[in-house]
Design goal:
180 residues; two-stranded antiparallel sheet; two-stranded antiparallel ribbon; 4 helices; flat
Length: 180
């Protein structure tokens, strides 16, 4: 008859094996997601840069934003209204000419607070101060959500973190109208 400790060890090893398998699968999916997000971001950038489309007769036609651009499958795609990105959308990498409306309203609020701070000649803002500027209660949950968004904006080139937890607009990022 097997011992209780031996049976527990067998079950522990089986559970550990399952955890390792799931971690490997999660890592694979995470890597695949990163590639898909990068690919998606490149398509968003490409679509945003299309300003002129050559007509079949060789003339250059300025594309009308209300007309859909064909997707690879040949079906027309109607772009949505020029509103801000969805709240859970990907933050695009900053580049000259990119307007703030490419960001979600939450990210735009952060940029607006930092732009106001910059206009007043006051230094970097902490997330708790940003919460107050944005009309949010400076409670830990809201502050941490702001910190997460600000860190994402730093990673994408929209903001600079002059000292840990102190944020400013990146030097090349212009006002709400867009690029530099």
């Amino acid at each position: 008859m097997p011992s209780v400790v031996g049976l527990l060890e067998q079950r522990e090893l089986a559970a550990r094996g399952r955890v390792d398998e799931l971690r490997e699968e999660a890592d694979r999916i995470h890597a695949e997601l990163a590639v898909a997000e990068r690919d998606w971001n490149e398509w968003v950038i490409a679509r945003s840069r299309v300003g002129e489309v050559p007509a079949p007769d060789g003339n250059v036609v300025v594309s009308d934003p209300s007309e859909g651009l064909p997707d690879p499958g040949g079906r027309p795609v109607r772009p949505g209204p020029a509103e801000a990105a969805k709240p859970k959308s990907v933050v695009p990498m900053w580049r000259a000419g990119l307007v703030w409306s490419a960001l979600s309203q939450d990210h735009q609020r952060i940029l607006r607070a930092l732009a106001d701070q910059d206009c007043l000649g006051q230094g970097p803002l902490r997330c708790q101060e940003m919460a107050g500027c944005s009309g949010l209660d400076p409670v830990p949950a809201k502050v941490e959500a702001l910190r997460s968004k600000a860190k994402r904006l730093v990673a994408r080139g929209w903001l600079a973190e002059s000292a840990p937890g102190r944020f400013t607009l990146a030097k090349d990022v212009a006002g709400p109208g867009g690029g530099s």
